[in-house]
Amino acid sequence: MNDPRISSRHNPLFKELRGLADDPRRHGRALLDGIHLVGVCLAHGVEVTQLLVSDSGSANPEVASLLQEATGIERLQLSDGLFREIAGVSSPAGIAAVIAIPAVPRGELAGDAILLDAVQDAGNVGAILRTAAAAGVRNVLLGTGCAGAWTPRVLRAGQGAHFSLAIREQVDLVAALASCPATSIATVAAGGTSLYEIDLAGPVAWLVGNEGAGLSPELVAAAGVRATIPLAAGTESLNVAAAAAVCLFEASRQRRANSGSSRT
Predict the structure, then answer these.
(1) Cα–Cα distances in Å, from 146 out to 140, 205, 249, 257?
(2) Which domain CATH number covers 84?
(3) Number of domains, the chain
(4) pLDDT tens digits, 19-48
(5) What are 148-166's pLDDT values in tens digits?
(6) Does a structural domain hold residue 185?
(7) Residues with Cβ < 8 Å from 68, sequence gap 6 or more?
(8) Alpha helices (H) in 11-121, listed in sequence order
(9) pTM of the model
(10) Which stretch of DSSP H or E encloses residue 57?
(11) What secondary structure letter does DSSP report for 174?
(12) Of 100, 126, 143, at which residue does a domain stop?
């Protein structure tokens, strides 16, 4: 039996899919596209409620292989034009998945965390999530004003990192810091202690701020330490995702070095 096919944007199912892409949190479900992301979902046992395939995607051998793995999941086939609208890219691979957004983690923070203050660019948010996962930082807290973690662009930039992280959104970051046992470090463009002079051996709650304005004064005041990344003369600042990567991997470097010293 052929999968149900959608060819009109007036179709109620298509309108529902567009709503998922625009506001996933309200629906409790997210839409992600691409062979890699769908494969990551299936490999991690993420709850996939629906698979979407474009007309041309159904002829792609990699897509066909994924569909063979995904037995028992409802499927819809879309015309190429409608699939492009859903995916939000000009040349989609032709497969997407609707997933149930994981439950918000409960309880106090344990271990390292990174807190994002009004980071608005979806590419930056996704890149920070990907870096956090790679650096072994599981807790990610997004304050108000951040790009939605489960929107298609952030999912695409995260490249599957979401599924190894504990993500909290719309968090009161000042309140979260008050109950967090880790050392809180505010990243500031100037005036802080050099990142490379700070002992990062213990758990750290990193604070990174808005692309233009940086961290709010309230968060900077609430932090226990202010850190600045030394830059070459004439350079004002780093992109927020790049700065986050430098900080997280400096902590990783110090801990690896300390671990090596303890074995000698």
Answers:
(1) 12, 18, 23, 34
(2) 3.30.1330.30
(3) 2
(4) 888 889 888 999 999 999 999 999 989 999
(5) 999 999 999 999 999 999 9
(6) yes
(7) none
(8) 12-22, 24-27, 35-44, 61-69, 80-87
(9) 0.92
(10) none
(11) H
(12) 100
